[in-house]
Amino acid sequence: MVLAKLRQSLSQVGPLIGLIAICALFASLRWETFVSWDNFAIILQQTAVIGIAALGMTMVIIAGGIDLSVGSIIALGTIVLALMLQAGWPPMAAAVAAVGACAFCGVLSGLLITKLRLLPFVVTLGMMGALRGAAKGLAGQQPIYPDDETWLNNLMQLGEKGTLPSGVWLTLGFAVLVALVLKFTRFGRHLFAVGSNELTARLCGVPVERVKIYVYTLGAAFAGLGAVLQFGYLTGGDPTTAVGLELNIIAAVVIGGASLSGGRGTVVGTLVGALIMSVVANGCTKLGLANWVQEIVTGAIIVAAVTLDALRHRKSKE
Prior knowledge:
By secondary structure, this protein is mostly helical. It has helices at about 1-30, 30-35, 35-60, 70-85, 90-115, 120-140, 165-185, 185-195, 200-205, 210-235, 245-255, 265-285, 290-315. The longest helix has 28 residues, at about 1-30.
């Protein structure tokens, strides 16, 4: 009993301890350039897109699912947003249209998974390719930069004296919202129930199919919000953006203590996991490491996160 509680406590604070340790490592190696408010603001800027998309992925993984298409959804969202702005739509309407288009992709994934009883891995892997192709087709395989600049272009721009971008505050606001949904709503309880034991949840009257469709829709909608932030970062739409970003997003959720088997996950853990990914990338850059070295380090972190999740799952069964 004591060991079980100790393991649970370690799983909750472990990601935070890891973040502190990684920050301490880079600080000891590059104190002058790594430890500064400006660099901290840059790290938060780099975390925002992964963080807000990871909020949606957290709900999907808690429900026992997975979505490999979020990177392609983000790319598609930036293209839809750019096209709407180019057509003269107001910025807010264009952003809503982009998020709505992304959410519709989630509806399709949810319907395929529930109605045809297909594996989420297979469905979202197929959607990843299809949506990437759709983004390239809509954009004519070229980035799209609207002629007129709007407030959307400034969402991810650092202000004077290291002022945080609006996108960072947007991510934090939605993080609070998702945390409240998971803790205090029936839908949140249903997510944990479906992820912990789908059969038991069904016997208890949980509308499993409906919950799955909703969660994939929400996951894609949050990827759409990530697309809006990515548009602000790029100041345009790019069909080739966010390639491989789904792995970083999933890794952030798993590093934060969520289980790929479902039934476990927290918003705070996810944000810490997203910060770890950004701190590692930023620290490697400060050390002057080549991109291929950063990719190896990121890959090693993903493997380590999945391994820890497998060990946790194995321990819970014993």
